[in-house]
Amino acid sequence: MAIVKPFRGVRPPKELVEKVESRPYDVLDSEEARAEAGDNEMSLYHIIKPEINFEPGTSEYDPKVYESAAEHFQMFQDKGWLVQDEKEQYYIYAQTMNGHTQYGLVIGAYVEDYMNGVIKKHELTRRDKEEDRMKHVRVNNANIEPVFFAYPDNKVLNDLINRVVKGEAEYDFIAPIDGFRHQFWVISDDNDIKTVTEEFAKMPSLYIADGHHRSAAAALVGAEKAKQNPNHKGDEEYNYFMAVAFQASQLTILDYNRVVKDLNGMTAEQFIEALKKNFEVECMGTDMYRPNKLHNFSLYLEGKWYSLQAKEGTFDAKDPIGVLDVDISSRLILNELLGIKDLRSDNRIDFVGGLRGLEELKRRVDSGEMKMALALHPVTMQQIMDIADNGKIMPPKATWFEPKLRSGLIIHKLS
């Protein structure tokens, strides 16, 4: 069963939140962060992208860069740009995109739950990326940015959230760049806090939706601190890390599409003919075509759109991995026809998040940069949970969650 706790959040005063908040560290590069921060000394980028505090070209992995993150985190607190709440509380974080709002509970997730598999993952992590985030957690002694969880739908929590959000939000703003609305409430009532803790304790599992490296780093640092403390009791703050947990049915997963530089020596006609072995192929003309169901794909090639429907027998409906469209397309198109074996390392392929739309696929092919584009139907949250429950790992580049969690709304100290 899942163990969670409230915590004393460190967060900006209401009037400063839009100065402090930012996009997460891993959705933009150093120069983009430098440009977005501009002359705003309150921008969280000074903590989560601290290389911008130095000359352009400074490595983000330089020890002095990590030290600068800690110095700025302390300075933000000294200047009152970040203030710690007096009471341990839960929080509600809502995001609205295209008229749809999803409500997340900001919780302290239990490190041991990550270690023993109560908190389930569906992606592999890379040790170098884990170590980078571990250094950041260590030097700040805090989880500066939250991870993104999903939990099975729960009526009691849903009713509690609906009641709390009828009150005035602590924060309420439209973010630059993405244009989405972000709102934030504090759950300070002791009975409500008790209810949240008790309802999570009934759940057999929580699921990492996005932020696998941050989850791993936060949990590993917590475990590391436990080993280093000769007086470890188990109730220390480092035994928990910060997550925003959303009801699974509320989450929006967008398509994660592929663009490829060449047809592996085939002409367009030969490629279309080769596809017919495993797919029902239909030319849809020049109007953009979006996959309309699972196992249906959209191909853009030489100015035309095609519908590809996987034939019966090309996938195993009982295999939680084999039934995925990312697996079907990887096996039968990218590998078998185009010779792309490793999606992580082959430089002939690139990936386009669904928020950019089919227009971006068309643009990259029409420009001559890419030869073809392949659009997939989005993975469902139920598929992700089934895979995690079976101890399986999703194929690479399978999920694109949107909106991304804004950083800087709340921080969790480890002591």
Salient structural properties:
21 strands, 31% helix, alpha+beta, nine-stranded mixed sheet
Overall description:
With 415 residues, this protein is an alpha+beta fold. Helices cover 31% and strands 24% of the residues. It has helices at residues 17-20, 30-37, 45-48, 63-78, 111-116, 127-140, 155-164, 190-201, 212-228, 268-275, 325-335, 357-366, 381-389; strands at residues 4-5, 10-11, 83-84, 90-97, 100-110, 119-120, 142-143, 147-151, 171-174, 181-187, 206-210, 240-247, 253-254, 256-260, 279-285, 296-301, 304-310, 349-353, 372-376, 400-401, 412-413. The strands form five sheets. Strands 1, 4, 5, 6, 8, 9, 10, 11 and 12 form a nine-stranded mixed sheet that branches. The protein starts with a strand and ends with a strand. The model has no long low-confidence stretch (mean pLDDT 95).
